[in-house]
Specification:
Pfam families: Methyltransf_11 (PF08241). The chain has one domain: Rossmann fold (3-Layer(aba) Sandwich). The chain is α/β, with parallel strands linked by helices and 234 residues long. It is globular and about 45 Å long. Strand 1, helix 3 and strand 2 (52-55) form a beta-alpha-beta unit. 41% of the residues lie in helices and 16% in strands.
């Protein structure tokens, strides 16, 4: 898929749970969703009694403005999916039209929750690489379909700065997918891994039970090496 900018395109709670191999214990902790956009992950988590903080620069806008942005890009995204259908596995979704309907449902759930969630502090207008949180504010930070996916739009330096910032505010970071919009392994992946290992973090590529882009069933998990040791000993 070839897009010129980052677009609002949301995924649901079950997708997040599967993409990031989230356990009930993970969700009981302090969780940050970074670049969540119009995902229904936060809304569904809140309905289940979990509290997620989602950040995105999109949240400076009203629900009506966000809906207009979704509508403005929706047809372009679905038409490109049709044109490049062979790059994807049509198991969770049977075809581009069923995917489009699923995305509409997901984004409608977000929009219905957005005003209440914003008032409750669950949706925060912010963007990497500068987050409005103190060190170690979260147990887990998730980056869905932003880092690595938009490798052409976000250079290596931006990726490294973003991952360092996520690791500043969270004890653990998970990133999915590791492929670009074109379905290729991100050229930033290895340099980012090397930089984080140099900073003293444990870096692990882990297979997950979610695959839509062909070959895109791997997430990146980063933790400070001491955290990994502490958990292994506990």
């Amino acid at each position: 898929m070839k897009l010129s900018s980052i677009i609002p395109w949301g995924r649901n709670f079950d997708e997040y749970r599967t993409m990031f191999a989230l356990s009930s214990a993970d969700l009981q902790g302090r969780v940050l969703g970074c670049g969540d956009g119009p995902a229904s992950f936060n809304a569904e988590a809140a309905a289940s009694g979990f509290r997620i903080i989602s950040i995105d620069p999109l949240y400076v806008h009203t629900a009506a403005e966000i809906e207009a942005q979704v509508q403005a890009t929706f047809d372009a995204v679905t038409s490109q999916l049709r044109a490049q259908k062979d790059q994807y596995l049509w198991e969770r979704f049977t075809d581009p039209d069923s995917l489009g309907e699923a995305r509409r449902t997901t984004m409608r759930r977000f929009l219905d929750d957005y005003e209440k969630g914003e008032q409750n502090g669950r949706y925060v207008a912010a963007s990497l690489p500068q987050l409005p949180f103190s060190d170690g504010s979260f147990d887990l930070a998730l980056s869905s379909h932003l880092l690595f996916l938009y490798s052409e739009q976000l250079p290596l330096a931006a990726h490294i700065a973003a991952v360092r910032e996520l690791l500043r505010v969270a004890r653990e970071v998970r990133i999915f997918p590791l492929l670009t919009l074109s379905g290729e392994l991100s050229p930033h992946l290895q340099p980012v891994c090397a930089a984080m290992r140099g900073d003293g973090y444990d870096v692990e590529k882990r297979n997950v039970d979610y695959e839509f882009q062909r070959g895109g069933n791997v997430m990146l998990r980063l933790r400070r090496a001491s955290e990994t040791l502490d958990r292994a000993e506990s």
